[in-house]
Task: inverse folding
């Protein structure tokens, strides 16, 4: 599984790299704090799989990086090979500020 650190993601943001950012947390978590991107809760992801591109990097994030591991495993079983987990999730992102 590919991992991206918060500092690496900041570089991607600053350099306007072409990728898709996906928040798999619940709505109440997103309302408290988020860094943007598509909002597709983990429970809805497989039914909304067509919203994810297969032709560019997709960075997924949750609170600590645990849910995204599960999501990435499911998506890889469905043929995705362009998925990246934000290492440590929002917890690590906030700590790195």
Result:
């Amino acid at each position: 599984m590919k991992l991206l650190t918060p500092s690496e993601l900041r570089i991607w943001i600053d350099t306007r790299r072409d990728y898709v950012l996906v928040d798999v947390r619940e709505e109440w978590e997103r309302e408290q704090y988020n860094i943007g991107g598509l909002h597709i809760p983990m429970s809805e992801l497989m039914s909304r799989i067509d919203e994810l591109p297969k032709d560019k990097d997709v960075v997924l994030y949750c609170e600590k990086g645990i849910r995204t591991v599960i999501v990435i495993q499911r998506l890889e079983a469905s043929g995705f090979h362009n998925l990246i987990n934000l290492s440590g999730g929002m917890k690590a992102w906030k700590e790195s500020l």
Notes: Residues 64 and 88 are 5 Å apart (CA to CA). The longest strand covers residues 19-23.
